[in-house]
Specification:
By secondary structure, this protein is an alpha+beta fold. It has 7 helices and 19 strands. The strands form 3 sheets. Strands 1, 2, 3, 12, 13, 14, 15, 16, 17 and 18 form a 10-stranded mixed β-sheet that branches. Helix 1 packs across helix 4, helix 1 packs across helix 7 and helix 4 crosses helix 7. It starts with a helix and ends with a helix.
Amino acid sequence: MILDNKWQNNIRENVVALCNIPSPSGFTFQICDYLLKFFKGKGFEPYQSNKGSVIVPLGGEGNPIVLAAHIDTLGAMVRAIKSNGRLRYTNIGGFPANNVENETCKIHTRTGKVYEGTFYLTSPTVHVYDNVGEVKRDDSTVEVILDENVKSKEDVEKLDISVGDFISIDPRVKVSDSGFIKSRHLDDKASAGVLMSLAEYIKNENIIPQRKIYLLFTNYEEVGHGGCAGIPEDTIEMISVDMGAVGDDLTTDERKVSICAKDSGGPYDYDIVTNLIKTARDLVLPYAVDIYPRYGSDVEASLHAGYDLKHGLIGPGVFASHGYERTHIDGLEATLKLLIGYLCK
């Protein structure tokens, strides 16, 4: 399958736009509004579930399938304001503290104010402390220092910052001339951008899908219950379009589309995995079939919630997941081609 070069640019633009919108789990209203406006502007009729997921019918008839990507990300929340004016945080999602040390961030108050800050070790300089390299990183040794003139808890409270305020980690998006995209939150904004491009491809190329297709953008995946609700009632099949895990003995990389055969929740549906592999082979795509040892997906949350679905999982290879991540436009394009081939033959 050959796609015009404009689709690479299209995917890249969608991914970069999503990465730059702060959306830690529980703080996704901005990115949901963005998606609703985007799809309405393309002629679709998106709507939201009561829980906030964005659902987009793409057309087609029969054998309804959901393609799910999550738009929530890792982040943090203010756990306590320290007497010295610094913030103790609590994780939103699963990441080690060393993955945010020295990262810049934003604090989003309940009154709508936004402040900047940085995650720092409590003993950050080698010119003062002799144990910088040995200190265990956790939420008691890594703190958020505000870029404001504050020296006490009272100073911070005067800014309207309080316990329970969301903290988003700055994405630091970079796109290389060689096609690599580096950013936080490529899990799962890389695949969410691919689904946006899929919808545009179907609309622009006047494609009639072979079956009824819904896009589902969930907003609580990083905390485990994104796919528990909001699935259209007639759905019989669901594929999580998430990230392909890279590392150890896995065979995917940033330039491939990964097809997951099994993760920590067990094996994926035999027929779906087999058909995805056949489609990738027929289209001569750069792909890999892998087992992710420490991974769960939206579609598994749907199954645990009691939905009777056949389930699958694919996505572009993403390196250094839950850190400063990296993928490549080739892997994104291969993911789009696999979806087109699987659904629009």
